[in-house]
Queue: 2 jobs
Job 1
Amino acid sequence: MAVYTDRIRTDSSPQRGTEPDAEFYERMAGPFWDQARDVITEWWSHLPEHAQRGFRKRLLDRNSNANVSSALWELYLHEMLLGAGCTVEIERPLGSRGKTPDFLVTRGDEQFVVEAIWTSERADDALTAALLDTIDRLPSPNFRVSVTINRAGSTAPQQKRLKSGLTRWLAELDPDHAIADLMQRHRPLPSYTWQEADWSISFMAFPRDPGRRGIPSSRTIGMYPPMKEPLRSDLVLEAVRRKGKKYGELSMPFIVAVGQATYFPEDDDIGNSLYGSPIEYIRSGDSSALRRLPDGYWTTPHTDSHSRVSGVLVVNNPGPWSWAKNTPVLWCSPNSRSIDAPVLPTWGTMHLASGQVERQPPAAPANTALGLPEDWPIGDPSQRHTR
């Protein structure tokens, strides 16, 4: 048995806004995605038999993109642990509450627990996704457009009128004149705002290169609506708060592994949420020093239960396109009550020392534990899946 069907695929069109992730992984044609499917199936086969059915169901779940992403995240972690020479047991009851963590890991003479969580600041907006799909399918041989949603309505707009207005506007434009106006007269690119009911959408037309005009299958949208604001301000902190209290007392190191889908990952944000906000103060002699406010996960007063978490392993935006390239980073607890977390050779580390966050690079690149070349997957992903 395999995760995906063994068949000839011919559809290499980019992912539609309303297309479920599971459907995209199943139908996307091309060597890049063939490699991804082959590796997913291979890693899935390394799971213990009792876990394979549940993982496969999640990987193929067309009703939940989060289910697909979390299953891929756990599959990646499991393979990384195996590749580091660990033995991994899945969902074995542990702790004073009898819960079943994702992975009980044995490495040499030591054991530790890894609890995985996938979290994202991205959300699927069904109305906007359907609208963008409509715009993207609109024939536009000479231009691509940027889309800015100034105001989103509570119900779907009349797509027929939107397509009619946008088509008419694009047909009136000359791509060569638009380029000349931009380069010679410093005029802005053509723009158009469509309004109806409680919707307001602005477009800007970008001339296609002469050699790429008139291609029927080419997408119309060249720039998608910018994200107005993150849905959640601190994904890692919310994740570790949720998982850190799940198991009660453990007599071994406990690592919360966070795969976060975020637009602007910043180490400073993670450090502030786990170790506390930095503040510089002046000592005698006009010298300054850095200390941390007691507002971090491990530094907030009266949170002894947080010492149960030995470390937080973070990987930003993991997926088949980045598995071989991303560096997992283990943020180590500064709490003296915490059991020291083990560090695998492919993990970088962060430690808090005298108010400063000190980083140590990994001893080996992540791809060595995964059994993948550094440049895997090889080839052109076309429109890469980035949800």
Job 2
Amino acid sequence: MTNKMESIQQIIRSEIANGLIKPGQKLASIRKQSERFDCSLNTIIRVYQELERQYLIYSRPKSGYFVVAKEALLPLLQTKRIDFTSAAPDPASIPQTDFRQCLNKAMELFESSIFTYPDPQGLLSLRQEIVKLFQQQQVFPSAQQVFIFSGAQQALHLLAGMPFPNGKTNILVEQPTYWGMLAALKTQRQTVIGIERTPDGIDWVTLERYFQSNMIKFFYTIPRFHNPLGTSYTAEDKQRLIELAKANDVYIVEDDYLADLETNSKADPIHAYNGASHVIYLRSFSKVMLPGLRLAAAAVPTSLIPSLQWHKHAADLSTSVLSQGVLEIYMKSGMYAHHAKQMKSLYNHRIKHLREISQRLLSKEYLYTIHSCGGLFTSIHLPDFIHTEDLVKRLENRGVDVFATDNQFLPSFPKLNLLRLSIMRTDEQDIEEGMRIIAEELERVQYTSSSPKPFFRL
């Protein structure tokens, strides 16, 4: 079947799945469909014959083609799900046997601590291991400056609500940004200001003005493999950012949640650019290990330690000893480094494949951050005339799950019409099939819209 025929077939199939053509309803005539899709009568005849072979439609002599009954359609329209939404690791990629061994060992080694309330800042032995891990990223805290949290979400929640030594109260965030940070800020009822981040970076003039005039307590940023954009700051950007922060006494909360996936050995975090006095360096372990362990770690400036200790203790008394023990054993045994290396290779291969397929199937103007390298996420920019919710629903009906980024913007900030794509639970076949379906649905919008812009390269 040619690409043109397959595209037309999938569009009609999608219309049936979405209920635009009801069971028992007559399909448009062969002539009308040939005019609609700008193709020959023979092409439509072959498309209808193929749909008939799939038992989705049937013909009545001298009457045309009709959709079969709903009960017969359901199993035929069900498809394998292609998950471009998930931000959690594929269970198949996690060495669960290794974790069970570490859990059993943790029960043995930390038995006495399980029956007490340990240091709310985290087990000292684990913090010492975290220091070694951070040093690999050119971040050099003392163990006293390291905090262990019950997931990065807890860290963000506490930092959003606690006072900072600069005495300022407002918080600046990139737009778009991680939805969990926006949720934490909303629950804390903080005054939040947004600043646009594009594939080209950030508006430095606006950033400096905000730093100088808006009483910014801290600036929350994801400099590496941004969520949802997938882009990273350059070395020059990081240097400039820390200089502005120190000059204006603004703290930076650096969410380096994908440091383990970096393929460029020279890509250091902001903290490494002489930022120890004004950077809270935050690392999560959810993307490489089990999210259910609920663990994250941060290196904080000395000036923040007393206040953060009090707020952490008030929040949960202490982070799970068992989870901390599992992570410590996993790191000390070398399992963590080995597994992180495997995950880096796996995810890097997938994101490269997504980029190659997307560049082949989609027009350039819609490849918002497809050109970026590494990480887990990339994004597609849709024109304003496309109703994102409708497109997401159509893709869902065809077995493709995508993530609209509306909740990654502040309510008051102008939203971009973006779809975020994740490769965490896809393989090469999923990526190729999923992007083909996305391209076909975009083509369908072109057919039904007055816009002349091309979406799909046939």
